[in-house]
Amino acid sequence: MEKTPAFGMTLDDWIEWMNERGQPKFRAKQIVEWLFSKRVTSFDEMTNLSRDLRNQLESDFVIGLLPSVRLTGSKDTTRKFLFRLHDGRLIETVKIPANANFDGERSGRLTLCVSSQVGCAYDCKFCASGLAGFTRNLSAGEIVGQVMSAEHETGETIRNIVFMGMGEPLANLTNLTKALTILNADWGMNLGARHMTVSTSGLAPQVEKLAKLPMQIRLAISLHGATDEVRDQIMPVNKKYNINRLFDSLQVWQRHKKQMITFEYILIEGVNDGLDQAAILAKRAKSLHAKVNLIPYNTVEGLPWKRPDIPAQDAFMNVLTKANISATIRREKGHDIDAACGQLRLQEETAEGIS
Length: 355
Ligand code: SF4
Fold this sequence. Notes:
Elements lengths: L3 E2 L5 H10 L5 H12 L13 H10 E2 L5 E6 L5 E6 L5 E7 L14 E3 L3 E3 L8 H4 L2 E4 L2 H15 L5 E4 L9 H12 L11 E5 L3 H8 L6 E5 L5 H7 L2 H4 L2 H15 L4 E6 L7 H14 L2 E6 L13 H13 L4 E3 L5 H4 L4 H10 L3
Parallel strand pairs: 1-2, 6-9, 9-10, 10-11, 11-12, 12-13, 13-14
Antiparallel strand pairs: 3-4, 4-5, 5-6, 7-8
Helix pairs in contact: 1-2, 5-6, 7-10, 11-12
The structure holds iron/sulfur cluster (SF4).
Iron/sulfur cluster (SF4) binds next to helix 4.
């Protein structure tokens, strides 16, 4: 039987597990302390639990630390981990340095970009993760495991998390919600909800569901086009939930969360970098009081898209700033290591013959 990662268990799950074995409730608290505060790497080290209980834990669970197959790093200290899962599949997790967080602001906090699925079914035309299709959802334990493993490997504390790695997080809503609970809980990783950002390509009904989660997490929308015409070309999800439907769901989000939404916008030459798109984007951002992160495209092997030159990037940006939109250009760090998310995994899986 496949063992469950202990990192994916909530305090309530542990209480239930203890209950079923006739154990007192406080044992559950002891386990999460060993896992998240004392950071043990084996059940054997949980010395205030009986030998018998430790054996039972050993037979039902693994701790959930993920072995790192490759660790690439660039001169500016962005680090890309390639973690191996229990079934041999690979996922990418990226550590972004404290002075260059995901939206280009100086935050003084280390950010980790985590994956939510192996592969992705959404087939955005510019994305390496979508190239090999969808394999499976990550469990809550595998999501939390990326954060614990990155801290374990680097000895550094992660204080910001963005769900912008491989996969569409809102297509894995149940496991995502559970992972957010564990990451946020004071008995868990104790990460502030405002320091966790979930990014979606536009799954409107799931945005509305997530809006009801009583946690002040942040939302980023991978917009990449200001009109249906452009989004339809590069993001098939738009055919299911068009821009108007998406923006209706963002209104719901804002009613519940009363916080700023971020639009991520990858600038692709000749596709979405026209100044007409910039003007419509400015209007859309203003309507929601959203901020915009522009990300010049990074070439992906096997895909035809190119990044616009710097004057074209600046011209696009100028339209936004003139309209008083809070906007940044993320001339991204770390993209000298392996360009866009998903590429490292594709290379390794190809080399290992995993299909
Ligand atoms: S951009 Fe995101 S949603 Fe689109 S294919 Fe890539 S991983 Fe999936």
